[in-house]
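Task: sequence design from structure.
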């Protein structure tokens, strides 16, 4: 596809003798289109060329040889060079590219031959799948799709929290009162109750706590009774989690959780022993990490392993089995210290530099609820399944008000409700805390999932009204050079670049923002142009653009994990 930035950088490079990659990285897209389509800030070169930016600008302009087929005006404003592209060429290039790619518009092969491991969702067995795990599931899932779309080989791992001392407690509680609870019917709720009860008992009676610790030790040593109950907890929990995954459309390539590494930690401990850095401290085995970082605990006082040790074993395993170029961990920022410690200790495992450099924590902010809006029996823990079902119910209510005669309302409500939750989760930069507010996220006119779906549905209904899809050969590009059409075209042309930025920063919100921009640009195109009913050529041309927008919205939303209804 035609790359204007590259063309401009190439031309500038010939005048200043600086490589074009560097120059290209400086080129900006001005917010105000009267400042051109692209701007080159000459002050970036001031130091190197030892000249004032305006002087650089005029020197470059004087010597610049750039094909006027592509760029039809270059202006100097202060220390900037502003470039105006030839709109007809732009329209032609963009639509030709769309014609060739269609649903695959924006794909690329930058990821070819690269392996990306994404560790996401990863809820804890026997505990409620709560709203914090929603973010991991949704952010990780979007990254998964987008990396894949750009040609990377992606491995999605649900690193289940299916191991650890809490299972010692659960086993103890189950041993004592198992009969009283109906865990088959309602696994997570009942196991949570057992957990709360045994925890209280542990607080009163130190010897019970000791029993619990021993249970976990026994589980690690493969004790038959403990293993059996543990595996029952695991499979019942997974069955319940699966209902949430079905609602969200989440899929994983591997479900190897923490327990999977139970027989793989010996090697980690051995390697760490060999470095001489594994030391005893108050009965535990730790690796010191200097003054500013808390030490990483490798083995507990009673000899059992830790969350960190399992993560270290997982790094070894993933390096060997997936040969990863990047290994991403999507969790809340509460785990920043954990990953800092683990990545630091991983350097002692004798792994190739490539793997150490590829480790990356992708942290995200907390979800905060508008107070008093939602509560559950347990108090403040909100179960994700309840929340998703509530989203669907609320979406159905909005649809019933707006379009009572709609067919298959339930199906549409599901896509709208779930889409609203997913989009809300991805609409701000991930590190920010998220405010969970039903009215905001379900507003059809806001910057929301339902708004994007609504614009998509509008593109569909225009095409349906026309009754045909126009052919590329029948369109006349000069019809699309007005301001609002060009705006749509320019936005379309940015799609691939946007996807690349998403993976560069592991930031799906860049795509969310893009889909809002595309929707809004289409909305003003729609308001200022008559699509159907003018002469055939205009109709074909504008319909063609309409279809391109709808297709890209669907592709983009799909990458975020949002499905499009065909009506709403
Ligand atoms: N189960 C953990 C939690 O709920 C998240 C696990 C993240 N992945 C990892 N490899 N540590 O907090």
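Answer:
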């Amino acid at each position: 596809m035609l790359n204007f930035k590259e063309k401009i950088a190439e031309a500038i490079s010939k005048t200043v003798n600086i490589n074009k990659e560097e120059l290209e990285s400086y080129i900006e897209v001005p917010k105000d289109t009267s400042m051109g389509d692209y701007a080159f800030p000459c002050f970036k070169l001031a130091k190197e060329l030892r000249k004032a930016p305006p002087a650089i600008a005029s020197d470059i302009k004087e010597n610049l040889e750039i094909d006027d087929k592509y760029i039809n005006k270059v202006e100097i404003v202060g220390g900037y060079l502003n470039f105006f592209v030839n709109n007809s060429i732009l329209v032609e290039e963009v639509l030709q590219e769309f014609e060739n790619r269609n649903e695959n518009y924006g794909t690329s092969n930058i990821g070819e031959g690269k392996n990306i491991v994404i560790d996401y969702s990863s809820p804890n067995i026997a505990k409620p799948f709560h709203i914090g795990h929603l973010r991991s599931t949704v952010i990780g899932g979007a990254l998964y799709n987008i990396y894949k779309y750009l040609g990377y080989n992606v491995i999605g791992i649900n690193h289940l929290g299916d191991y650890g001392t809490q299972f010692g407690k659960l086993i103890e509680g189950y041993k004592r009162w198992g009969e009283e609870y109906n865990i088959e019917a309602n696994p997570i709720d009942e196991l949570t109750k057992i957990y709360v009860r045994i925890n209280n008992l542990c607080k009163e009676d130190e010897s019970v706590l000791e029993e619990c610790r021993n249970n976990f030790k026994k589980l690690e040593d493969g004790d038959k009774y403990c293993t059996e109950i543990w595996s029952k907890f695991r499979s019942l929990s997974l069955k319940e989690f699966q209902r949430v995954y079905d609602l969200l459309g989440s899929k994983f390539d591997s479900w190897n959780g923490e327990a999977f590494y139970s027989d793989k930690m010996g090697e980690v401990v051995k390697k760490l022993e060999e470095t001489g850095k594994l030391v005893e401290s108050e009965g535990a085995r730790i690796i010191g990490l200097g003054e500013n970082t808390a030490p990483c605990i490798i083995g507990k006082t009673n000899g059992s392993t830790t969350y960190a040790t399992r993560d270290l074993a997982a790094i070894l395993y993933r390096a060997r089995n997936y040969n990863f170029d990047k290994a991403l961990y999507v969790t809340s920022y509460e785990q920043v210290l954990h990953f800092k410690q683990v990545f630091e200790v991983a350097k002692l495992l004798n792994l190739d530099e490539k793997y150490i450099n590829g480790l990356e924590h992708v942290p995200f902010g907390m979800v905060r609820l508008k107070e008093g809006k939602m509560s559950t029996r347990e108090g403040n823990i909100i179960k994700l399944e309840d929340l998703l079902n509530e989203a669907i119910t609320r979406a159905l209510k909005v649809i019933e008000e707006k379009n009572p005669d709609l067919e298959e309302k339930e199906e549409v409500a599901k896509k709208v409700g779930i889409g609203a939750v997913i989009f809300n989760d991805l609409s701000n930069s991930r590190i920010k805390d998220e405010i969970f507010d039903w009215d905001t996220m379900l507003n059809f006119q806001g910057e929301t999932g339902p708004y994007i779906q609504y614009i998509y549905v509008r593109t569909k209904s225009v095409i349906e009204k026309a009754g045909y899809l126009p052919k590329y050969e029948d369109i006349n590009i000069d019809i699309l050079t007005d301001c609002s059409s060009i705006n749509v075209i320019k936005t379309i042309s940015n799609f691939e670049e946007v996807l690349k930025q998403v993976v560069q920063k592991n930031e799906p919100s860049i795509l969310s923002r893009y889909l809002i921009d595309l929707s809004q640009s289409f909305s003003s195109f729609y308001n200022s142009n008559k699509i159907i009913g003018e002469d055939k050529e205009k109709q074909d041309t504008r319909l063609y653009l309409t279809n391109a927008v709808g297709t890209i919205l669907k592709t983009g939303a799909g990458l975020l994990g949002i499905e499009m209804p065909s009506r709403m």
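Residues 373-378 have pLDDT under 50 and may be disordered.
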